[in-house]
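User: I need a structural model of Site-specific integrase from Anaerobacillus isosaccharinicus for a docking pre-check later this week. Nothing fancy, just the predicted structure tokens so I can convert them on my end. Input:
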Amino acid sequence: METKLTIEELVSKVLSELERLNYAYNTLCGFRAFYKRVVAYANAKGELHFSEEFGREFLKEKYNCTVNYYKEAMPKGLKNPIRRIRILGDYQLHGVIIRRMVKKPGYVKPPQFEKELIAYEVECENNEYSKRGLRTRMQRLFFFIDYLNNRKVQSSNSITAAIISDYVITIYPHHEKSISSILTTLRVYLRFLYLNEYTAEDMSLKVPKQTKYYYPSVPSVWNKEDVKRMLEGIDRGNPTGKRDYAILLLVSKLGIRVGDIKSLRLSELKWQSKTIEIKQSKTKNTVTYPILHDIGWALIDYLKNARPSSNSPFVFLRMNAPYEEFGKDANLHNIITKYTRLSDITIPKGKRQGLHSLRHTLASTLLEQGTPLPVISEILGHLTSKSTSIYLQTGIEGLRKCAIDPEGVFENE
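Assistant: Understood. Predicted structure tokens for Site-specific integrase:
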């Protein structure tokens, strides 16, 4: 902003903007009370203008917050004070309140950008991006569009290098992998605008590149005892248990992605050849999996004795009415969480033990058995061995702790 506002003026502007954005009454009351303390602290210290250093000192003295909240995780219980201080800094720098990364259904496109956003969505669909991938891509893009709208940018052709630079500053607190994804999304969209003549200049060239290469984290894996204990702890005497047992076997022994399990159709179960043939939602590749002995009996038990009576073409259904397939946003994390707790399995701090970790375990087990990376890539549905190569980082000791025997994966019993 051209003229630097005093702290009181800045607070007044921020509160007015929060009201314009229709923040809830109780939320606004919380902001007002907090900013009164900020103004009083500034007056006591003789500070006229807001600065990041002033914000950090306020949090340190009033909340005993000493972390660098741009680089470190925000302490539990301090997210609201930190968020409110950061809003002052954001508004002073950009003149807008930066949206937090919160998904909002039914996004309303600003009218000045609606035409190109719709065209971009159509192009992504024509390129056969998965629904989940497209949804994530558009979600990232909408934050940038909101930023432009709040900055009163009236057309895509008015986007400048300075605006892009200012926006990039706002994503600095994110994890470097998130930053990379946001920058890629932004670069691709701006390139699309130029190629389709929505902008006179290729602004994708103005998007900065990360200088630090991202090294993917080593995937979490299960140990053999915990996987067995979890599977054995499932109550297969009730319909929900029969369904969940079949799902967990498909993930842990075949490495099928959750999205593909949700979209698995009855017609894709090839009983004569003892195979499952699916078109992977992420890669669009057609993949054939063997119906191993225990997987086959688990599926039969579920289909004959547990699956609700329904005309749905999908294998796995909800167990409460209406009896239909899982929702598009369901990640089935509650299933593995439920049985982890029932089996009294302790999850080490920092470990991610979701359904995807069972895929990691399968990959690591196959690697330990000497399976070539290209073969593991094919089993897991990776487009290249590059994605699979991160399992090499687990090390021999880590591999020895990996979980289940995938029964040779290619062998039918």
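Before docking, keep this in mind: DSSP finds 17 helices and three strands in the chain.
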